[in-house]
Structure prediction request, 310 residues.
Amino acid sequence: MRNKIAVIGSGFVGATLAQRIAEKNLGDVVLLDIVDGIAQGKALDMYESAALEKFSSKVTGTTSYDDIQDADIVAVTAGLARKPGMTREDLLLKNAQIIGGVCKEIADKAPNCIIIMVTNPLDIMAQLALAVTKFSPKKIIGMAGALDSARMCAFIAMELDVSPVDINAMVLGGHGDSMVPLPRYTTVSGIPITELMDTETIEKINNRTRKGGAEIVKLLQSGSAYYAPSAGAAQMIESILTDSKRIIPCSVMLNGQFGLKDVFIGVPVKLGRNGVCDIIDLTLRDNEKSALDQSANVVKENFKKIMRSI
Ligand code: A3D
Prediction:
């Protein structure tokens, strides 16, 4: 039996994610969009590349949730993207309405799936997905830390003129300006970056990482990042479907870990076939812990706001 991966929303992130999944031969992909023709057109175009790119994954497009029936994974990328000057929080209410509706359909048609949330504001949308679907918290995972850490790797690679391949970065917290890069858990071939760069340079990299999304939004002038975000989601999906048990920072529901409860926030997670296999509970320093708490408070407050309004 081949894996079935549904991608809801066939815009920049959704379509690029579908392409990455197909090219990695992770399973058959169903692209869905609310606008008729977009998902069908992109899926057909993508499948026409199969002979060239040598993949066997089927790629189909649809507007009907009947076609996501019994998907193993559903990646949610539907919704509005940020425009210049717009914060992730500005997107909150609009995307909450969209994600509320999308998640009802997922719970109905693919009740055993694992949801990878990508739509922003990420942690809040992941928490909304849990509230709407009532799935096990092990099966709702937000993509953010994979991207934020990859961005940090890119900036370190630029600074040190080394390959990003050898860099492992760790960014925790909410996916927003309050994210928490952890330089002491960030290494180049096992060497902590604190041995390779001075504090000022590291702080510059941390700040650029925190504002990484806005930097791309500003350059693109319309739309937001999608190459690295789709790569982050593909890495998570691959770890789940191949039961690799990779440890990737993801936004998940905490139940006492890091001293936090009932809130989605980015932490290191072991990902396998059943979704969240484990949450790696680290001992944080006081400044790191207070940054994580602050991040969690933003998510909690905004989650309350959307639950009052939808
Ligand atoms: P975009 O290219 O606009 O694609 C969104 C797609 O969703 C469009 O094709 C819409 O037609 C479709 N859509 C809208 N409403 C619905 C609906 N109800 N059902 C099905 N499809 C619908 O945006 P994008 O792909 O650039 O970004 C998608 C989302 O991902 C946005 O919310 C972004 O903010 C978010 N995003 C998150 C990250 C993270 O790191 C968490 C990174 C990049 C983008």
Remarks:
- Residues 286-309 form the longest helix (24 residues).
